[in-house]
Amino acid sequence: MLDDFLVRAGLAGVGTSLAAAPLGCFVVWRRMAYFGDATAHAALLGVALSLAFQGPIMLGVLAAALLMALLVQSLSGRGLAEDTLLGVLAHASLAIGLVAVSFLSGARLDLMGYLFGDILAVTVSDLALIWGGAVAVIALLAWRWQRLLTATLNPDLAQASGISSRTEQLVLTVALALTVAVAIKAVGALLIGALLIIPPAAARPLARTPEAMALITAVFGSLSAIAGLAASFHFDTPTGPTIVCAAAAMFCITALAARVKIKR
Predict the structure, then answer these.
(1) Among 9, 119, 144, 193, which is disulfide-ready with 37 (CB 3.0 to 4.6 Å)?
(2) Between 78 and 56, whose confidence is greater?
């Protein structure tokens, strides 16, 4: 079954969506969209380091994304506004990564794949890494779910209950780095932020509980991956951006449906 590249691509898209779904909900609830972008942009620097030292791409991406997330967390609140700090680090890491890749012989041919993904080239070993990463992210967030929810939705109650906001932020940081490492093969460094934000935003008007929102997000993300893959194959368009377009279409539909419901 896995000999068919479309089946492998579909499984990779679903695995990536499942990894991004619960984390994306926290990104939306905590208004961490720019934080996700900064971590994703650092992934390209991880790619350059992996190519330079001939190591596993996913390991380099994971290390760079985790380092960026920890750097942002440690520097925030020290004189610069958080959005300014995130902007500087996001663009600087992306630029450094692009420059570093340009110095590596043979790397330029793969640059578009690292930026926008190459889901059609996913191998069986890539699938194992993607699904392994997805299981790790889901398990990590499930383990800390109630604490993360309390720290996110009611910081005062979290403090009174002895829940450390910094510890829960660290959990999200690790999960975000894992998700970036998982998703870079499927949608690329520049589109990971969209995959983290758009499906949860589409699911939000339909959900009444945080758990329901996470489940609906997983469904929307998976449907976006399958629909985007089918549309890309039919219209011969770039697969990663087409998946994001499918997710954006779902957001438009749910947003319009919510408006119509409010008017009634």
Answers:
(1) 193
(2) 56
